[in-house]
Design goal:
signal; five-stranded mixed β-sheet; about 575 residues; Porin; 20 strands
Length: about 575
């Protein structure tokens, strides 16, 4: 009895160790090459365009990989020994796809390993070779184009789609052909097709799979990636070159374990035949940076699209060279003016000059009127016909007249004012008009003669702040009266004229500097309405008791005005 207990304990511990080792070294799907079944997908990298509505494709992918699963062990003398768990593998993928509404594509891929071999698996606890003829995990695939990024087969531009693949555990896990559980892979496709037919596509996603620890290496969730290109060689015949880099980044690992990143480079040729058959053949190299990277691989495929389906017509249109109807080097699909020759910078449209003024319509602000480049293609406009262009005319609706400046007359009506272009000047501290101001007053006189509707005009005199209030008020009165007398002597009826001085009480600028004082020394002309009954004819005068005789003055001027020229 004392001998049997230790023996039983030892046996139990041994069985537990074997059981733990068996649980730990669970096997997984070693297949890196997972082809895409649509006729225009780039081998193991999908393109964004789904099959046309109710179009179907079906075909076979044959792939042969050398050393897709190699285990490297170290001896005590630090030498390495490689064990080919799967020394070579010949696999057939039977695939079928169908398009719905031009937006969705659904597919199925049934992998069948026709033959695989390798070294004796005794080192990992199984006597003999890996089983050579087994099923793989059935894959269900789907693709949905993103709104705004659905591109036709023959068109250029951006394309994008979402994908979702589901793996069912139909394969033989012991033969490294299955993960032994349900797996799924959501992903994204973004691609771009150039006008000459070159397609560049990028894939990314998440491969959710169960965690497995095999010989001290943890295999679990991975991030698959792919970057591929297809370049037409003989487009009218349907011959293209394909190339891709695809693989996956391991997202889980044990402490101290190198991250698993199986990847391979693929190159090949493709032929879109007129029989609806797409043939692809090529090979690739693995990176040698993971358990699952093959040293060499070869593939060939044939995908069939029936000629009665719209997908066949789409591929035939893709085989046609890009059209350039006007021969300007810009293909019709991106040419905004496909029937007129123009540069690429203008999207194939010509330089137009509708009005023939030498300024092209795209920068001509007035494309239907002859103009000049200096005026952005617009003509010189002169609304008031005074010889000054509107953009330079400060008074575009009023003729400048012979003495005007900058398109403005010396005097013009604006609201209830007669504005003058230049100040009226007097002798210093006097009410004597200087001759330089006579032309301005002649303009004011002429305006009153041509506007009889002006019944009363008040001539206002203003001064700066120098000197006293009494002095400035008296000086402004005399100067205003001097102008009133001048206008009367020039032929304006006296009953239409009034004058008043305001001294320095109404400044329009700061009197602290010369510029401000010059603005405050001014004369203004204000149009007044006719006086109401009982009101004085002019502001500041007593009310009149009876009508005045025509031609008489309200009051004599306080000082003799300058003689009329």
């Amino acid at each position: 009895m004392t001998r049997s207990l230790p023996t039983a304990l030892a046996l139990a511990l041994c069985l537990a160790a074997v059981s733990a080792a068996t649980a730990q070294d669970a096997r997984f799907d070693a297949q890196l090459f997972r082809p895409s079944g649509a006729p225009q997908d780039i081998v193991a990298v999908s393109q964004s365009r789904p099959l046309s509505h109710l179009s179907a494709s079906g075909g076979l992918y044959f792939s042969f990989s050398i050393n897709p699963l190699v285990l490297v062990t170290r001896n005590g003398d630090s030498s390495k020994k490689a064990l080919s768990l799967v020394g070579n593998r010949l696999q057939l993928d039977a695939m079928a796809n169908v398009g719905l509404f031009d937006w969705v594509e659904l597919g199925v891929d049934m992998p069948l390993i026709l033959f695989q071999g390798g070294d004796n698996l005794e080192a990992i606890g199984t006597e003999g070779l890996v089983e050579g003829y087994v099923l793989g995990d059935l894959r269900l695939t789907s693709k949905v184009a993103l709104p705004g990024f659905r591109r036709r087969a023959e068109d250029s531009g951006w394309g994008a789609a979402l994908t979702f693949n589901l793996g069912l555990p139909t394969g033989n896990q012991e033969a490294f052909a299955s993960d032994g559980a349900l797996t799924y892979t959501p992903g994204l496709i973004v691609d771009y097709r150039f006008g000459m037919g070159l397609l560049i596509s990028a894939n990314a996603g998440l491969w959710a799979r169960p965690d497995r620890v095999f010989n001290g290496v943890k295999i679990g969730d991975m991030a698959p990636f792919g970057l591929a290109a297809e370049m037409p060689l003989l487009r009218t015949v349907g011959v293209t070159a394909v190339g891709a880099v695809h693989g996956a980044v391991g997202l889980t690992k044990l402490p101290g374990q190198a991250r698993q990143i199986p990847a391979e480079l693929l190159l090949g040729l493709r032929w879109y035949s007129s029989l609806g058959l797409t043939f692809t053949v090529g090979g690739g190299l693995g990176c040698g940076c993971s358990l699952q990277s093959p040293q060499l691989s070869f593939f060939t495929s044939v995908i069939w699209v029936p000629a009665v389906m719209s997908e066949y017509a789409a591929i035939e249109r893709f085989k046609e060279p890009p059209r350039d109807s006007d021969g300007d080097g810009v293909n019709d699909d991106v040419d905004s003016c496909p029937d007129e020759s123009g540069p690429e910078s203008r999207k194939g449209c010509p330089l137009r000059d509708s009005d023939g003024d030498g300024v092209t319509d795209d920068i001509d602000a007035c494309p239907s009127e002859v103009g000049t480049a200096a005026r952005s293609g617009c003509p010189i406009r002169d609304n008031d016909q005074d010889g000054v262009a509107n953009e330079d005319d400060r008074c575009p609706d009023v003729p400048a007249g012979p003495s005007g400046k900058n398109g403005c007359p010396l005097a013009r009506i604006q609201g209830n004012k007669i504005l003058i272009l230049e100040p009226i000047n007097f002798a210093t501290d006097q009410d004597i008009l200087l001759s330089e101001s006579w032309p301005i007053l002649e303009e004011v006189s002429q305006m009153l003669k041509t506007h009889p509707e002006i019944k009363r005009l008040l001539v206002e005199g203003h001064t700066d702040s120098r000197s006293s209030d009494e002095y400035n008020l008296e000086l402004s009165r005399r100067r205003a009266a001097s102008i009133r007398v001048y206008l009367e002597e020039s032929g304006v009826e006296s009953e239409r004229l009034c004058s008043q001085g305001f001294g320095r009480s109404r400044p329009v600028a700061d009197n602290k500097n010369e510029e401000g004082m010059a603005l405050n020394r001014r004369v203004e002309f204000t149009v007044l309405p006719p006086p109401a009954a009982g009101e004085p004819r002019c502001p500041g005068e007593p009310a009149e008791k009876g009508p005045r005789k025509k031609g008489t003055k309200a009051a004599p001027p306080p000082a003799k005005p300058a003689p009329k020229p």
